[in-house]
Amino acid sequence: MQRGETLPVALAAEDGSAMSEGEFRLLYEATARPILAYLTGVTGRRDVAEDLLQETYCRFLARGRRSLEGEEARRYLFRIAGNLLRDRWRRGEDSRWVELVDVGASADAGLGIDVQRAMGALKPRERELLWLAYVEGMSHAEIAEATGLAAMSVRLLLFRARRRAAGLLRPGEELG
């Protein structure tokens, strides 16, 4: 949603319930930034992430989950976003990272670029799990809820993703 855009006064859902513009605005302000960062981090493309973010909120509103509040609504939105990512991967629309995020002029700029290259070399599912665990700080159970995986699967897949990322960050390893 761009600054200055207005929403309809009531956003109707399939079940007939409605979310007011104010309720939606509060939800959006509380969740849009971390979801956009997640989508950008996993896809490596800001334009794709913005499209997926818009679709995430459209689906949320269409499903009418007005009764969700706080952290539950946040996890549900992450689940929708993750499902959209997986749909994209299944259609073969996942391309290698083509743009690097600006890391600025900090002393850690070299490390930031190495991490970005390593993330780009990982499989989409590995990027997703690492992002949810270490950037969003989600527990295995929360990641399982957001991705639709079993909690024990999350634990194993996250372990493998960490090990693979660590291998890519070691000196002499090829980043692909």
From TrEMBL:
InterPro entries: RNA_pol_sigma-70-like, RNA_pol_sigma-70_dom, RNA_pol_sigma70_r2, RNA_pol_sigma70_r4_t2, RNA_pol_sigma_r2, RNA_pol_sigma_r3/r4-like, WH-like_DNA-bd_sf. Residues 27-91 form the RNA polymerase sigma-70 region domain. Residues 115-164 form the RNA polymerase sigma factor 70 region 4 type domain. It comes from the Bacteria. Gene3D superfamilies: 1.10.1740.10, Winged helix-like DNA-binding domain superfamily/Winged helix DNA-binding domain. GO terms for molecular function: DNA binding; sigma factor activity. GO terms for biological process: DNA-templated transcription initiation. Keywords: DNA-binding, Sigma factor, Transcription, Transcription regulation. It holds the Pfam family Sigma70_r4_2. Belongs to the sigma-70 factor family. ECF subfamily. This is RNA polymerase sigma factor SigL. It comes from Edaphobacter acidisoli. The lineage of its organism: Bacteria, Pseudomonadati, Acidobacteriota, Terriglobia, Terriglobales.
